[in-house]
Amino acid sequence: MRHVLSWIREKDESMFASFFAPHPAVALENARRKEVDLEGMDGLLLTGGADICAAYLRQPVSEAERGLIEEDAEADRDGFEFAAVQTAIERGVPILTVCKGTQVLNVALGGTLHLDIPGHDLPEMKTHNVQGLRFAEKASVRFERVNSSHHQALDRLGAGLEVEAWCAADGVIEQVRLKDYPYGVGVQYHPERDSSYRALFEQFLGEVEHGSPR
Is the pTM of this model over 0.90? Predict the structure, then answer.
């Protein structure tokens, strides 16, 4: 049995589980529900959620911004996820990140965030694939139009990350990859919400299933 570690909100659990169902040899372990062993992971999935606690950010944060961030911050979750990124990269396990998870990955690698951006969390964009993307030549996976539900985004890239896709309308980074790493992909959109994104999960889970025993 292979083990993918994550921290998933209750409202998102069934959506992610549907992509794991065709892979009975891969267990999705939710650290929100139980204690997990970072050293025993075969893959890491970081998902959407509240803004990263200001204490973890690598940039100046105004008092007004700090107040907005801390309203919904989850310090326990952030502590788990930043430790999980470090352990995953040290061990070279496959990594897939979604929305907040991509922001965690970027910050963990020394990057910064745009703390509030307009136009990426409109009601019609949350579950409908209406946001066009433009891609880098070597993008690993391509979805011409995606859903969007975030008010923060990547600014300065963390060490080892490269951009694979941007929002066609305003250039906001929507997809990144870890360079010189076995498998590490981050997306700012929400692939768990639509079966049309199955190729992304199949790519990740294939890497988990066929990785070297740990």
Answer: yes
